[in-house]
Amino acid sequence: MNNTQIPLVDLVAGYKPVEEQIRLAWDEALSGMRLFLGPNVQAFEREFAEYCGVQHAIGISDGTNALHLALRACGICPGDEVITVGFTFIATTEAILLSGAKPVFIDIDPKTYTMDPSLIENQITPKTRVILPVHLYGQCADMDPIMEIAKKHNLFVIEDACQAHGAEYKGRKAGSIGHAAAFSFYFTKNLGAYGEGGMVTTQDDEIAKRIKMLRDHGSEKRYYHDLVGWNARLDELQAAALRIKLNYLDQWNQERRKNASYYSQHLESTGLVLPWEAPYNQHVYHLYVIRTPYREELRQSLAEQGIGTGIHYPIPTHRQKAILDRGIITNSLPHTESLSDQILSLPMYPQLTQQQIERVCEEVQRFTTEYISR
Length: 374
Ligand SMILES: Cc1ncc(COP(=O)(O)O)c(C=O)c1O
Hints:
- The protein has 13 helices and 14 strands.
- By secondary structure, it is of the alpha/beta class.
- Strand 6 (168-169) and strand 7 (172-173) form a beta hairpin.
- Helix 2 (19-32) runs antiparallel to helix 8 and helix 9 runs parallel beside helix 13.
- The protein is globular, with a radius of gyration of 21 Å.
- The chain has 2 domains: 12-106 and 115-246, 3-Layer(aba) Sandwich (Aspartate Aminotransferase, domain 2); 250-372, Alpha-Beta Complex (Aspartate Aminotransferase, domain 1).
- Pyridoxal-5'-phosphate binds at residues 62-64, 88-89, 91-92, 134, 160, 162-163, 184, 186, 196, 198.
């Protein structure tokens, strides 16, 4: 038995290539002490907007607040409804609830695991204001039909791009398609800070202006408050690190794609359901998620070999206690629910070595031969 640890994500390996540059950038930022929406925040906003191909990028404290403020900037009020998915991290729904609106959950496409656009129109009521798809695991939702439906019914579309930095849909970057989009720079993300961070991107001048105010207590001019806002500004030190890491994002996403391709080739014969990349998408594999009814057994077997795995996420949002306690009752979402019982995330990060990925594949193959086919 080889028990060398292979973690689900290796943050230390991810830090090494940028360590020196980040130490220098932090030294410089701390010498200048311009920590309130300082030069690094401003530069990173410009650079990230350019990267995504949008007019505006507004640095926010984290992804949850980026979603929340995007909803608020679109004028969402208590009583409004937002159509979204339950197959995501709970933050998507928390942001909707923070804005006072009610989440209306629909099922996902069982191949891409993202919002099934054919189910949207059935849920539209006079109270519906927003459609909020999630680009899950690094793959964009099918945005064209979503945008078409939104246009027909005069709705906003807010992309949850928190897991999809650099992903593309029909050649367009995640975060450049809807009326606004939210990104998270939580430290395990494809573009991760060393603390918390987030961003809203938009092409709309008015939404951008409102987000800028909302993240800073509703003010445009210091101590003059035209809106009731929030404190949700991106931190200067995080922005300094993120600027450096943005230069590596495409290269790291390519490494993730290469790793995903290796997994998919070598696990094809195992009978596990592997990730499916829609032909119109450029998936950036924030997570590499397989499906098996023997999830717990496989997870245990890999853990015994020192291989880390994750479950993203074990309980869909519409079945979480916090949501049920709010009296939000949703009919069964069959794909969402059956997937939640079967998904397993395998180690995935750009610095995963050939040796490590081979060993993960061997252990998964061994399990499927010995356990499933027995
Ligand atoms: C899909 C999704 N939405 C929203 C969030 C919230 O981002 P944050 O943790 O930065 O608040 C996350 C990340 O954790 C996420 O994965």
